Amino acid sequence: MNIAVSEPGTAAPVGEKSDRELAREELTIAREYIGPFPVFMAIWGLGNLVCWLALWPLVMTGTLSLWIAFPLATLNVVLCYLPSHEAQHSNYAKSGEPLRWLNELIGYVSTIPLVLPFKTARITHMDHHTYTNDPERDPDYGVKAANGWQAILTNIKRRQFGKPNSYLVLLRAKAEAGDETAKRAMAEAAVQTLSFWAILTALAWGGYAIEAALLWWLPRHIGMSYISLFLSWFPHHPMNEQGRYRNTRHFHRWFGNIVSLGMEHHIIHHLHPGIPLNRNAAAFRKMRPILEKRGCRLEG
Amino acid sequence: MIGKLLQAIGPWGPVLFGIGFLAPLIAQSMEALHIAPPFGLPSIATGLAIGTLAGLIAKYRGSWV
Question: Best mutation site among B7, B17, B21 for testing chain A: the one with the most A CBs within 10 Å?
Answer without folding.
Answer: B21
